[in-house]
């Protein structure tokens, strides 16, 4: 006969066992308004995104100001050089089942030319302050031209939320 303590000990998960994940039911496609709201919330709350330029993809921290995305990378890095040579850029946020894709143009900017407090806001949001480093960093303002967002195949239709820099109705 097994005691209650022995039963608990034998049924307790071990350090090497992991619980079996339970699939989350898909609630169905979101409306355009829900997708725009979710996209704007992600731009406000997320800290990191993926930046692609000329076939090179890197994760960078960012600041969204309501109209543009501010990123920073070492001035002489491959990404910095690529963005100065060709301003076309694609940004990606979120996991594969909650994607936000932003196509835009990156403008190299000096922090001094941005509104007061922008550097502090970038550092506060990202927990990273390029101004404190010995390496010279370049800031880029990415102005979205096209924004797409989707979670599942049922949201592929209507995934374009912004076209030519204007949010769609």
Automatic annotation (TrEMBL):
Region feature Disordered, mapped onto this chain: 1-34
Location of the Pyridoxamine 5'-phosphate oxidase N-terminal domain: 56-150
Ranges of compositional bias, category Low complexity: 1-19
Pfam families: PNPOx_N (PF01243)
Highest taxon above the source species: Bacteria
Name of this protein: Pyridoxamine 5'-phosphate oxidase N-terminal domain-containing protein
Organism: Streptomyces filamentosus (Streptomyces roseosporus)
């Amino acid at each position: 006969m097994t005691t209650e303590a022995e039963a608990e000990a034998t049924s307790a998960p071990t350090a090497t066992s992991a619980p079996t994940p339970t699939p989350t039911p898909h609630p169905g496609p979101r409306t355009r308004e829900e997708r725009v709201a979710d996209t704007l919330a992600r731009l406000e709350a997320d800290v990191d995104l993926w930046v692609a330029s000329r076939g090179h993809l890197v994760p960078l921290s960012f600041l969204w100001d309501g109209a543009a995305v501010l990123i920073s990378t070492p001035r002489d890095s491959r990404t910095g050089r690529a963005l100065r040579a060709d301003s076309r850029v694609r940004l990606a946020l979120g996991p594969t089942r909650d994607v936000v894709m932003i196509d835009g143009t990156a403008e190299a900017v000096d922090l001094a030319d941005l509104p007061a407090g922008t550097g502090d806001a970038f550092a506060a949001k990202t927990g990273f302050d390029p101004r404190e480093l010995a390496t010279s960093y370049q800031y880029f303002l990415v102005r979205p031209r096209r924004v797409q967002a989707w979670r599942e195949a049922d949201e592929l239709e209507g995934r374009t939320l912004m076209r030519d820099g204007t949010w769609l109705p």
